[in-house]
Predict the structure.
Amino acid sequence: MAKERSINDLIHRFNEETLHKDLDRRDFLQGAGKVAGVSLGMVIAQSMGGVQVKAEDEESFNEYPFTLGVASGDPLPDSVILWTRLAIDPLNGGGMPDRKIPVQWEIARDENFRQVTQRGTEIASPNLAHSVHVDVKDLEPETVYFYRFKVGQDFSPVGKTKTLPASGAAVSSLSFAFASCQQYEHGYYIAYKHMAKEDLDLVFHLGDYIYEYGPDEYVSPTGNVRTHKGPEIRSLEDYRNRHAQYRSDKDLQSAHAAFPWVVTWDDHEVENNYANDIPEKDQSVEEFVKRRIAAYQAYYEHMPLRQSSMPNGADMQLYRDFSYGNLANFFVLDTRQYRSDQANGDQSSPQTDESLDPSRTLLGDEQERWLLDHLDQSGAHWNVLAQQIFFAKRNYGPSPEEPLYSMDGWDGYIPARQRIIDFAHKKTMDNLIVLTGDVHANWGSNLLADFDDLTSRILGAEFVGTSISSGGNGADKRADTDRILAQNEHIQFFNDYRGYVRCEVTPTSWKTDYRVLPFVTKQGADISTRASFVYEKDQHGLKEVSATVVPQGEASSSEVEEDRHKAHDRAHNKQKKKQKQTN
Ligand SMILES: [Fe+2]
């Protein structure tokens, strides 16, 4: 699909038409002065100064305002972001008065708040859906803190967070989890209930935090057990309400309250399989850019992100890095915002001239350069890419001779992947770990300098985490499991239950535990570790160190890789039908 109009023109126009209309006009004029080129962040920041707000204790609401819980995120050695959003009527726009509301916060060394180390007041503005993002500074490294908010007489739930170790510090261990893909209708967030009880330093969310579909458009093989409120989301208000519906879930809230999170998105935070400014299908680029602006803003509003990630027009800076002492450098990637359109009509296909075209990009030039520069400078024991889409080669076609690859994953951007692999190979890296979401199943793979040569150098390993709920109950294995593992020998593990992945990291060893549930369509499932793999920098690749049979749960299903794509197609057809009916 060719871009008919320059993205900059569109952004400029939609800035004027949509985004800035939401801002308080008087504050905006006093603060920033000019529309063009002014970021939303600057506008909000400047509009806070000198504005009259009610005295802090005068605020009172008929209903409890902290219905969406609390969160913390993007920790640094001396700072962390504390998040909440005031919403007395969360599924209907929040229900808050259309004015700025002061929110008090405090952070303490103990959960009873006897040793409060800092407190302050942050303004919850209607421009950002009455969310607050407190950037607490001057904290101690590698230290646990407790925090809470207060508005009027109401206290929020208490959250627990932790700062990162001092930069460059010799760190002996790290324990973290990663999760992705939480289609609300497909199942309960039982995985988060269990995750909240783990002893973790950090959590990564690798995308598909919300799904954009209307009620029962995207149906899981085991049937939907909850229902999206409202039709397919398109406007800022729609995206806010959808985030609020997901965030009303108590299990999700408990996992947010228990650990600092580092989040990145995939496609469904905006729309299935979008690429940069190109929608899935049946939408103009113009309509889509407007939609992306709304989606990005709502995402920022609901995530514990730093101000540096505040949307700037139609763009949002989400790729960033975190150093866990000298143990690991995490590179959090954004594989949606800057990518070339999917090749081969975004259909599962063999490689073609289009998918092999070296001018196509997945990260965009700037992010790719940033990644390679930082990898080049990194002296950490591990270099970790926290990202969305399957990195290793994966032929899920009927045979090695009739390959099918996902055009939405790195297999659809072969030269872009090769640039990273060649770089790692040239540097003789053996400590590259890729963390992945997106495909609603657990996979474990060695990362080879050449996926077609099993004797080539092992650069590291990829751990693909299953979904929290997307896809429904799943099974231990699928109909295509044996074939895919046989024709992709670098891939060592597959499992199709729901859950999350826990990693325990030391300077010499990386242990990954696939934590799974036998079902998500009813409450009460126990968590177990289906398998544990260890990767050491010894050129032996992944070693399975333990495996269990998961009690209950289906042993195998009739599903195959293509079924997920078909379910999305069915959802899209339902949307089209509905659209026809309303036109
Ligand atoms: Fe997903």
